[in-house]
Automatic annotation (TrEMBL):
Pfam families: TRAM_LAG1_CLN8. Its main location: membrane. It is found in: Membrane. One of its GO terms (cellular component) is plasma membrane. Keywords: Membrane, Transmembrane, Transmembrane helix. It is a multi-pass membrane protein. One of its GO terms (biological process) is phospholipid homeostasis. The chain crosses the membrane at residues 108-127, 139-163. Residues 1-171 form the TLC domain. This is TLC domain-containing protein 2. The keyword Transmembrane helix applies.
């Protein structure tokens, strides 16, 4: 937005050089991750992520194929900044490093980036879509609205799970230890 201020006015047909390629590569990543989860995880463990990836593949795929809404997809990619810390959290869990300073620090950064890059970005995108509904064709508006209606509750639920797992659980453990 700083380098390409015209994006602020037009997320539909304006995008900086390389943005289309970035969104196309992102579609490839989501497709690869989708197939990897199908092949290597049990459906009951990954259905939410598979559903999430399906929505992203459809929405980003439309942007890539039509060369439209690439700016909107760029904004959506801000959400993936938080994925760095979500994945690091998973790696630390798998390495059994839950009770370390690194895990605690990552939990705090994860929560902060979650609020900024997931919650705030999704709220901004929903607001933008609503305010610009007259500039977006009905089919694209429907896809965007359905996409946001799916992603927002999924991210709220995941946020609650993170809070419960990384923060509320700690308080329960401390209470239990005091009782013992």
């Amino acid at each position: 937005f700083y380098l390409y201020p015209e994006l602020s006015n037009d997320l539909v047909s304006t995008h900086p050089p390389g943005a289309h390629s970035l969104v196309a590569v992102s579609v490839g990543y989501f497709l690869e991750d989708f197939v990897d989860m199908l092949c290597n995880q049990k459906l009951h463990q990954s259905w939410e992520l598979l559903f999430h990836h399906s929505v992203v593949i459809i929405c980003f795929g439309i942007a890539v194929l039509l060369h439209q809404y690439v700016g909107f997809a760029l904004v959506a990619l801000l959400v993936e900044i938080n994925s760095i810390f979500l994945h690091l959290r998973q790696i630390l869990l798998m390495a059994n490093l839950v009770h370390t300073t690194c895990y605690r620090l990552n939990s705090l950064i994860n929560l902060g980036t979650y609020v900024v890059f997931r919650m705030a970005t999704l709220a901004w995108m929903t607001r933008w879509l609503f305010l610009n509904r007259h500039n977006v064709p009905p089919a694209a508006y429907a896809v965007g609205t359905v996409g946001m209606a799916i992603m927002t509750p999924m991210n709220i639920i995941l946020f609650y799970r993170l809070l419960r797992s990384d923060f509320f659980k700690c308080r329960r453990d401390v209470r239990r230890q005091k009782e013992e």
